[in-house]
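Fold this: THAP-type domain-containing protein
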Amino acid sequence: MATKSLKPKGGSCCAVATCINYAGKVKRDGKTNISFYRFPKDPELQKKWTLKFRRGDSITPSLSYMCSEHFSDDAYIRDLKAELLAYTPKFRKLKPDAMLTINLPVDHTSIPTVMYHQQHHLALKVEWNQEKKNRLDNEKKKRVHWSTEDISKAFTLRYFSKRAYSYVKDELHYPLPGLSSLQRSAKNIDMRNGIREDVIRMMKLNGDTLQDYEKLTVLMFDEVKISSTMEYDVLHDEVVGPHSQMQVVMARGIASQWKQPIYVGFDQKMTKSIFFSIIDRLDQIGFNVVCCVSDCGGGNVVLWKALDITYENPIFSTPNEKEIVFIPDAPHILKLIRNWLLDTGFQINEQLINKKPLESLIKKTLSEINICYKLSEEHLTCEGPQRQKVKLASQLLSHTTATALLHYKPIDDTNLLNDTANFIELVNNWFDLSNVSHPNDHRTPYTAPYGLFLDDQDALLDKMYNTFLLMRCNGKYGLQIFQKALLMHINGMKLLLKIVRGHGLKYILTSKVNQDALENLFSQLRTRGGLNDHPSPLNALYRLRMIILGKNPGVTSNRTNTTNLIITLL
């Protein structure tokens, strides 16, 4: 009865009476040329093999193996491919009728087989136990207790690349924690209320490699809405929530690419004492805060008053007598300008500026091929969440819109048309200058970094300053918050340029002095649902931890260690 070719199998002891080969020993000794084979299925061939083993005890063929050291070369099927390509195959197939012929016991009567195998298996057991003991001893010797500084350095390297981390650790044999150690450490990063001390330690280590000008810091803060859910934090054994807002403070370099969330507080308005403690903590690790940014929300206006800053003097002093410039967020100011233009309109001396030319322009251009195809009714009727979108405001108050008004002349009132178009052009140029992100964009003096074309840029800022100082919203008598914020922004930007020039910098990329980085962080916290996705408190902290450790870190567990109590407050 013919059988199929027998492939080598990994695994057990050789059944030949006097052979001491087994899979673990072969692997340990590096004998890669030894393979193990199962019994053939042919009953007659099984009997012949069993006789060759010369064992006095019984064996079960289906559970037994024999090693390749008992077969001659004639017992294997010829591998023509290996011969032609001159390589040694990983395994060799036995012929269907292969027979054991070498390294066999000479005479089973001279070998006490039962006693031999008892002693043999006892020796194997002792050897296996010794191997296990040696392995455990080696693991204990290799176990390292990594310090917080070591873990912080490892996170820094892991942030850049997982492949680079593995290469440095495994190929260059640099002493680094394993990825499982980083996972455990990441799980234990304290993300509860207050300053993130773990993040501060990482910043300190990174700061040791930065120049002084690269550590010039902008602080920005804002609140993000979270769901009012009560949760149980398994890791810290405490109930968290319900909360409605999460205050986040981010630090970023004004002359470098780094940025990092450093403070979290639930339902916590920014106060003077918290603000000073954050600035002082950054100063302790060598990061020099020169500027602070916020929007014009009511809580932030209260902070302005507490810091005793005004649009005429947007600078405050810390208890250490350190002077810091406060600059309101330019994109938020732009949205407020759009809102007041649509809601009330403006008056500058005898000039009127309102939305009538814009309404007529959109009606006229909807039926024609036009240069302001991006404008729609949505830009004028934006309500609720739509008012939070900077894109709609920047498209409405743009150079394209100003040009279209002058080109199409959608209304007969020439003065109103020209005044509105000129106002929109002025706001557009100011926003371009306040949102510069590329150092080589020199299309106009207003798209270049602030400080490169200083005469033209200051002339624009002065014109903008005087316009909004004299401007009044229809039905209002004094300056509104958004006007004071814009005036503070202009004065603050001029002061900030003097400060950074004192540190050797020639210009400011003004996009670093707004809250775009913080808004991007909030969009990552919201992830899938946009403005309507409000994460729970602990889920927000978990997502924040993921962001701190890298965009796609892969070093944190996918579990948040929380239990939702399913108590939601509407």
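The longest strand covers residues 216-225. The chain is about 45% helix and 15% strand.
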